[in-house]
Structure formats: C-alpha cells, structure tokens
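Subject: sequence -> structure tokens, single chain

Hey, anyone have a minute? Need the predicted structure for the following. Not urgent.
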Amino acid sequence: MREDMQDCMFGVNSEYVDLAAEVFTLLSDPTRIRIILALRDGELAVGELAERVAKPPTAVSQHLAKLRWARVVASRQDGTRSYYRLVDDHARELVQQAVFHAEHAVDEHPRHHGTGHPSVEELSDRRSRR
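Reply:
Had a minute. Here:
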C-alpha cells in the first residue's frame, strides 16, 4: 500500500483538523468541483477549463486563484496563456469520493459499484418526480 493511502492516524485534537475543514469549505463550491474533475486527466488552459465547466473565463480564473492559494492547483505560463494542473491526487480523490457518496443519495445501485446502474432515462424520471 502506498504510504499516502494508509489509514488516517490523526487524533481528534490534531492540528490538521481545522485545516481539513478549510479544505472542505474550499471544495464546497460546485464550480471548483467541476474544475477539479476537468483537471483530473491533466493540464488545461483557462479558456478550455471555462468551456468544460460552462462558466466565463473570468469566473474560472477567480476560482483557480483560490485553488492555487490553497495549493490544490499549480499554474504555468506559455506566452499569454495560463495552464493549470492538480498539484497531487488528494483533491481529485476527495472530489471523487464526494461524487460517489452523492451517487448513493440518488441511486440504489450506484454506477461506481459496477453493476445495476440506472439508465439516463431512469435518472431523468427520478429528477422529475422530486
């Protein structure tokens, strides 16, 4: 097992608890979650990120600045273009687990379990009944 994938050994009074809460606060914005999902496969320019998350580039840049400040993403310049990438897998894994957890709230048999997932039509029907 990778060292960073071991069970959490921090106690309830760990100095990292408050910082972890700040990470969850930072990731509580849907646009930031979409940005992290878009960056999970590699580096993207701001314009491409904006297209993928369907937000204006200026709004995406503001979210990226917060993610950069928190050391979730890193940037590099190539001429006039800025490219962003995830610093490590931790934020990607947090977002992935949060989305998996959300699937459980919607689906009796979530797709990430591999079988029995609902069709697009079934999901649409569920949403319309709410």
